[in-house]
Amino acid sequence: MDPNKRPETMERITTPELAKAFIDEQVAAVKEQVGDKKVLLALSGGVDSSVVAALLIKAIGDQLVCVHVNHGLLRKGEPEQVVQVFKEELGANLVYVDAVDRFLDKLAGVDDPETKRKIIGAEFIEVFAEEAGKLEGIEFLGQGTIYPDILESDGVKAHHNVGGLPDDLQFELVEPVKLLYKDEVRVVGKELGLPDGMVYRQPFPGPGLGVRCVGAITRDRLEAVREADAIVREEIGKMDPVPWQYFVAIPDVKSTGIKDGKRYMGWAAVIRAINTVDAVTAQSVEIPWDMLCRMRDRIIAEVPGINRVLWDVSDKPISTIEWE
Ligand code: XMP
Question: Which of 9, 235, 279, 311 has its CA 20 to 30 Å from the CA of residue 269?
Answer without folding.
Answer: 279
